[in-house]
Amino acid sequence: MTISHDAFGRLRLAQFLTVEDLEELRGWEYLGRRWVGEASGFTEWLRLESAPGVTRSVAIDLAALPKSTAQRMIDALGLPLRAGLDQQDITGVFGRPTDTERFVRDRVTLVFHVGAADPYELSCTVHEEHGLIHLTMHPTPLPQEPTAAH
Q1: How far apart, in whole angstroms, are the C-alpha atoms of residue 142 and residue 105?
Q2: CB neighbourhood size of 90 (10 A)
Q3: Can you spell out the DSSP letters for the chain?
Q4: Cα separations in angstroms, 125 against 88, 90, 110
Q5: Cβ atoms within 10 Å, residue 28
Q6: Chain segment 51-96, per-residue pLDDT in tens
Q7: Angle at 132 between CA 127 and CA 79, to 5 degrees
């Protein structure tokens, strides 16, 4: 159902958006690690500073992107999702979430572990009215960052 870790690592945001729409990220902190990558608003495709040739995290702001662009990204990840799905639709596909987070009153983030051969953590943010508006996906486990020599 999901993309292989190898194919995921080769994905770049520039495959879906024009260079003019991209911002280069350096020294980005996320998940206790430092990253480089590309962003367009809250859509961020990240690579570890220690392995800058391999994409390890994808975040897609489904509410901000053109629907066709967002769907091409979702399809490239091998996910049977689309913008606007409600919680019941998403749990119907992935089952019960491993975690549920609520940071804002009108939305909930459902966390799933998906993929058997190449596992991922998938987080789907679902708005009360607009359904699925944001998702993040990264392979698990993420590689450990090398520790600096003292």
Answers
A1: 30
A2: 21
A3: -PPPHHHHHH--GGGTS-GGG-EEEEEEEETTEEEEEEEETTEEEEEETTSTTSEEEEEEETTTS-HHHHHHHHHHTT----TT--HHHHHHHH-S-SEEEEEETTEEEEEEEE-SSS-EEEEEEEETTTEEEEEEEEESSPPPPPPPP-
A4: 13, 10, 6
A5: 16
A6: 999 999 999 999 999 999 999 999 999 999 999 999 999 999 999 9
A7: 160
**Cα separation values, 45 from 67, 70, 124, Å:** 18, 13, 16
Amino acid at 128: E
Q: What's the pLDDT band for 146 if we cut at 50, 70, 90?
A: low
Strand partners, 39: 23, 44
Which pTM value belongs to this model? 0.93
Cross-strand partners of 109 = 101, 125
Flag whether pLDDT at 37 surpasses 70: yes
